[in-house]
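Reviewer 2 asked us to include a model.

Predict the structure of this chain.
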Amino acid sequence: MRAFFTLLHRYFGLAIAGFLIVTGLTGAVISWDHELDEWLNPHLLSATGEGPPRSATELAREVERRYPEVQVTYYEMAHEPGHSYYYWVSPRVNPDTGKLYQPGFNQVYVDPVSGEVLGTREWGAVWPITTENFISFLYKLHFSLHIPEVAGIDHWGIWLLGIVALTWTLDCFIGFYLTLPRRRRRSKRDSGSFWRRWQPAWKVRWRGGSHKLNFDLHRAFGLWTWGLLFVIAFTGFSLNLYREVFYPLMSSVSEVTPTPIDSRTPSGHHAPIEADYGFERAIALARQAGLERGWNQPVNSLWHAREYDVYRLEFFSAEEGHGSGGVGHKAVYLDASSGEVLGDGLPW
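Predicted model (structure tokens):
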């Protein structure tokens, strides 16, 4: 059994090593994505206008009027002095062809005071790599390897890295098992308790030669960092294969409350669903739902999940834009057709 798991551990490691190197290096860089993006692209992220800022929702409508081939699908409402508003946009369906427009950009940056469009860019573009898309290129490489859409599905890279993370998760347990001491027959010459026999696995023989040194570094380093490695592997698997594997698996062993998005079947990337009402009503409905729940934070971001016909509005203060206390924000989900409150989401 040990020989079989040793072989499995070896080939699992070889199979996923290249992927882990790529995701590890890119992940180390994108940990500073906001700071690096601001340094590389001040012409987009910095705003010099002086005076009171205009409503982010009002400017979202102006973006849609200026670029009728796109629809604003995400924006934040809090104004950070010296910074621009940014809007995520997605292409509308061209009525003449029945296919999505190709505007060549998916982000629009606007001066919050003057309303001037500072620029647009294609977040995650593969080529050409410029200062505007360098960080997003690494970001997309990190979670999808830039594997293109095939057969109308654009999740192949996400699924592949999810399988890699699942393999890594299983390999964590295999590696842990291989560090355990072998079973020994009881005898007068028994060398001691289980813990005493396992103790060498946590140590490095610095003078045992290169082979023993490499083996000990691999085994001891893996043991001392096992918890961290498992968390990274498990979260990678659970995020990339959430709807496909993680959620069904968790639902089979525990009572899991799905979000309204989890319980809906997507219409597909090329068949977005138009909302029956606009941002203003969505914000008002969410604000009322927040008051009923006793939430004190303002509505500060809006996301239209077009494939699910759902609005998701988050509640947070301006200084909590990237999360508070290491967790996400409170949120309200609205049906984008009827305006019905579908549920809420609490940070965890």
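Strands lie at 70-76, 85-91, 107-110, 117-121, 299-305, 310-315, 330-335, 341-345. The first strand starts at residue 70 and ends at 76. We have added this to the supplementary material.
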